[in-house]
TrEMBL record:
Protein name: Cytochrome P450 734A1-like protein
GO cellular component labels: membrane
GO molecular function annotations of the record: metal ion binding; oxidoreductase activity, acting on paired donors, with incorporation or reduction of molecular oxygen, reduced flavin or flavoprotein as one donor, and incorporation of one atom of oxygen
Swiss-Prot/TrEMBL cofactor(s): heme
Membrane-spanning residues: 6-32
Biological process according to GO: alkaloid metabolic process; response to jasmonic acid; terpenoid biosynthetic process
Keywords for the protein's UniProt record, in alphabetical order: Heme, Iron, Membrane, Metal-binding, Monooxygenase, Oxidoreductase, Transmembrane, Transmembrane helix
């Protein structure tokens, strides 16, 4: 009898647990989305209907697939329908503010610059960063990009000075040396006719990797290079998995690829910790010359209240956040200058006028970089038309009013940078034209609203590496302009596409000719 009661009790307990789990699932997957949907509907905000579990993921994937299968007119910069096809499609039906479901998570699209100001500046404390998907989290590191609250502000205060112009100026000669060597190697590889075809999207990845390694590790360049090479390999594996695998928990299975990723992760961590330890011990013994630039590792090691583990995570973040973004900027800028030879000429004239025609950039040339106004305008226009990060996401920490709309706690806001940059209401009559001249009076005056331009984000969490990216881009493009003229290779297919960042789907083959 006692046994019977005991079993009954167990059965009741298990049934109760199962009931609570099922109830939670029903609330999470059905009831809560329906409530949010009707909450927004009452305020006049609509969107594609929520489907159980998947939300709108199926439609999103099919819109994306249709868009990527279509070719674009060769010289068109009207890339929104191809790149953010879901936004372009649903905006026509529901207006610019609509609700879209990424699984059971609601995302409200916001592209009005006045509301964007509220999110990033006026009410920024009401919004937080959302978590990246698990596969991305693994490679982005637990650093500035994803940190929140006190820890984020503490790390930001420590890291920011490494990216100040004065420190970057000290780093410039070594950046220039590495770029110069890469360009030389390239021009040596040219055939007799002085012509070479290069897929710049690959080439710039290597170039940027080298420069970021120098900025992060400085005099420990060789050790840093080995570490970042491992991280590059890890990023390739993770990106492949990101493209192919959608099974929850797949990353925990001991598949061949996963085992490689785990091994790489272990090696990266071990080597970085060894490097940090070595630097810590040598500090004081050697002393760092006063005029020597503060590489990022040095800046973090000097700051007492940051653990070696945090330093490891920040190094990984810097590499993740800085490499592909800057390489993409360089790739699209080269493609744009190949498409628009008159701007290429103008930029080259300026480089020759300001820096002279010497083969190697002198220390003075580097100081002249800020004077390259036309090149600066070209980079701004490139970042407007082809922003490497096409959207930013924030999450409402609590219920908040946004331009008269009540946004419930937990709602994610999707700010489609690309759409804002291509909005005809903000960029006069020619939003899809390549017209660097629109930046002649500075970034703040280029559009009808100062918040309409945000390739590096906005507010307190704007990109910490912006100065480094622009320095690198100016230096690399100036070096190339001085030595080569270039045009699109006959095999080039204009197909901007998104895989984490905006990239050329079929590569970016460019033909370079020695001047
Ligand atoms: C063209 C090049 C680049 C672009 C377009 C770019 C874009 C961005 C954007 C849009 C954000 C804001 C993300 C958000 O608010 O959610 C951001 C943040 C960040 N970027 Fe960049 N970035 C570039 C280059 C770099 C470089 C070179 C580095 C470092 C070497 C870097 C490191 C970071 C970090 C650490 C953050 C997080 C800042 C924080 O939350 O405090 N970025 N970047």
């Amino acid at each position: 009898m006692e046994d019977y009661h005991f079993h009954l009790l167990w059965l009741l307990l298990i049934s109760y647990i199962l009931f609570v789990l099922v109830l939670k699932l029903v609330v999470h997957l059905w009831w809560a989305p329906r409530r949010v949907e009707s909450f927004f509907m009452k305020q006049g905000i609509k969107g594609p209907k929520y489907q159980l579990f998947l939300g709108n993921l199926k439609e999103l994937a099919s819109l994306n697939m249709m868009a990527s299968a279509q070719s674009m007119p060769p010289l068109s910069h009207n890339i929104l329908p191809r790149v953010l096809s879901f936004y372009h499609h649903w905006k026509k039906i529901y207006g610019s503010m609509f609700l879209v479901w990424f699984g059971p998570t609601a995302r409200l699209t916001v592209s009005d610059p006045a509301l964007i100001r509220e999110i990033f500046v006026l009410k920024s404390e009401m919004f937080e960063k959302n978590e990246s998907p698990p596969l991305v989290r693994k490679i982005e590191g637990d650093g500035l990009l994803s940190l929140k609250g006190e820890k984020w502000s503490h790390h930001r205060k420590i890291i920011q000075p490494a990216f100040h112009t004065e420190n970057l100026k000290l780093m410039m000669p070594m950046m220039a040396k590495s770029m110069e060597a890469a360009v030389m190697k390239w021009s040596e590889g040219m055939c007799d006719g002085g012509e070479v075809e290069v897929d710049v999207s690959d080439w710039f990845q290597n170039l940027v990797e080298d420069v970021i390694t120098r900025a992060t590790f400085g005099r420990s360049y060789e050790e840093g290079k080995a570490i970042f090479e491992l991280q590059s390999q890890q990023m390739v594996h993770a990106t492949e998995a990101y493209q192919k695998v959608f099974i929850p928990g797949y990353r925990f299975l001991p598949t061949k690829k996963n085992r490689i990723c785990w091994r790489l992760e272990k090696e990266i961590r071990k080597s970085l910790l060894k490097l940090i330890d070595g630097r810590r011990r040598r500090r004081g013994e050697e002393g760092v010359p006063e005029e020597s630039p503060n590489d990022l590792l040095e800046v973090m090691i000097k700051a007492a209240a940051i653990t070696p583990n945090d330093v490891v995570e920040e190094c990984k973040t810097i590499f993740f956040a800085g490499k592909h973004t800057t390489a993409n900027l360089l790739t699209w800028t080269t493609v744009l200058l190949a498409m628009h030879p008159q701007w290429q000429e103008q930029a080259r004239d300026e480089v020759l006028r300001v820096c002279g025609a010497r083969d190697s950039p002198s220390k003075d040339d580097l100081l002249h970089l800020p004077k390259l106004k036309t090149l600066g305008m070209i980079l701004n226009e490139s970042l407007r038309l082809y922003p490497p990060a096409v959207a930013i996401i924030r999450r409402a920490k609590r219920e908040v009013q946004l331009g008269g709309v009540h946004v419930p706690r937990g709602t994610e806001l999707l700010i489609p940078i690309l759409a804002v940059h291509h909005d005809p209401g903000l960029w006069c009559h020619d939003p899809h034209e390549f017209n660097p001249g629109r930046f002649a009076k500075g970034v703040a005056h280029a559009a009808k609203h100062p918040m309409a331009y945000m390739p590096f984000g906005l507010g307190a969490r704007r990109c910490v590496g912006q100065n480094l990216a622009i320095f690198q881009a100016k230096l690399a493009i100036a070096l190339i302009l001085r030595r080569f003229s270039f045009e699109l290779a006959p095999s080039y297919q204009h197909a901007p596409s998104v895989l984490m960042l905006l990239h050329p789907q079929h590569g970016a083959p460019i033909v370079f000719r020695k001047l």
